[in-house]
Design a protein that fits this description.
This protein is mainly β and 168 residues long. The protein has 2 helices and 11 strands. 24% of the residues are buried. It holds the Pfam family DUF1543.
Length: 168
Amino acid sequence: MNKQLYMFYLGGNAGRSNIEVHDVQFAACADYRDALPALKAAWFGDAGKIHIDGWQVIDWADGYDVFLSDAPDTRTGLNLYFVNVGGYVRGRLAEAHDFALFVAESAEAAKAKALRTLLPDHDLRHKDNLKDVDNVLLLKQIDGAHIGLRANPHGKAAALGFQGYLPI
């Protein structure tokens, strides 16, 4: 399989929003341009206002090589999770967000890893005054390709493929 896992950070307008809104999408493709139709279709905002703020090939995360295959990988019992955390800085109006990919046995274990590493200097106080994770997404299969993991504690995440403003 010559496809790779891509993570896209999308931005644009949505309805009557006064500020830019964002989303993260994933695609399995050989080239980032192959994902553009699916990214446009998945965008929840104004169709003419979508752009890519950045993309990255995901070939390593959290101590594991990440690869795509035609069949499910059942060797490790681990899964790849996308985790989005929100938090606040005292005295600032806006909520901050950070996200990353984590390898874990469960969503709860991925959340725990995220809360130890993302936004360490922020107050993560939501309605229950406890640290909270905004989103956890299990990534097992993208565009028909199965996600596999192979331990590699010495690996490194790929450099960003693009960062800036790319209208699509």
